Amino acid sequence: MVEVEALEHGFGLRPVLDLPSWRVGTGEHCLVVGPSGSGKSTLLHLLAGVAAPRAGTVRVAGQDLAALTPSARDRFRGRTVGLLLQTFHLLDTLNVFDNVRLARRLAGLPEDRARCREVLEALGVAEVARARPSTLSHGQAQRVALARAVVNRPPVILADEPTSSLDDESCERVAALIEAEAARHGATLVVATHDSRLHGRFERRLVLDAGGPAA
Fold it and tell me: Which domains does the chain have, with CATH numbers?
């Protein structure tokens, strides 16, 4: 689960996010929507521990992120949070399979080649396991990034604009894949997007605007 209380964040003098209270329980799925600049990506970065809030509390899977040292927070994120960003950050010095393996090593988890193969097969990219990321299509690279995000069976999955640049068919496929991976392990899923095509897929929704949360 994820939970925030009295959460505030901004850049310089410009406030970006003001969220008094918000919680998504274990296994629940929630969509975060709002116009550009409303704080959607910022919220996901705070939940992942990539950034620290200006004020307030962020708890993920019962852990107060502020109580962790930077190195402990990195390890916690690797084991607990599957993070799918708009920029995939795949390493072209490694092939697809080793990009996925790296997620386990960085989290301090034991080698599990079978699990890496399993998740690549589930997402339909096993056939490019030996390819370099630069040779992949956008859709293939996105699925590899998702494989890397979920290979450690994280209890929390965060996805930032996962469908914004996709056509309708690809949007449907990617959304279904993310939902299926979350459901497979009972993970909490938070998707931040301005893509209205996703609205009907989620019962829970957090709406952000320039003045803070609207619902």
Answer: 2-89+154-213 (3.40.50.300)
